[in-house]
Specification:
Blueprint: E1 5-11, E2 17-23, H1 26-45, H2 74-85, H3 88-110
Antiparallel strand pairs: 1-2
């Protein structure tokens, strides 16, 4: 096992093939080949793999919170409200800008010394 470079071939979840080439670390190369042999021995014999001197990884904290909404229809009412008012939002935003400009224009006529 005297290879000077290594190639890692990965197929991503989107089906894209990525090839990563890197220089080889001889100690790491020996350890990875040994681990691969032990893994395949477990696959062929059906025995459970044993970790060598390493604790198994602890479960990660869930980053996504799963909420059961099957007992409530309030989510659908909020979704319907959002859907029905979504088109009005840009109009309301432009009216707010227009109203503010009109107010400032009117106020500047009555109070010429004040700066807005």
């Amino acid at each position: 096992m005297a290879a000077r470079c290594a190639v890692l071939s990965v197929i991503t979840g989107g089906g894209k093939w990525v090839e990563i080439t890197t220089h080889v670390d001889p100690l790491y190369q020996h350890l990875i080949v040994t681990a691969e042999r032990k893994f395949w021995r477990c696959v062929e014999s059906g025995e459970l793999p044993r970790l060598f001197g390493v604790e198994p990884p602890k479960p990660r904290i869930e980053a996504v919170r799963v909420v059961d909404i099957s007992a409530s229809n309030s989510w659908s009412e909020f979704a319907d409200l959002f859907r029905s008012t979504r088109q009005a939002f840009p109009l309301q935003l432009s009216m707010r800008v227009f109203s503010r400009a009109s107010l400032m224009n009117s106020a500047s006529r009555f109070l010429p010394r004040m700066q807005f």
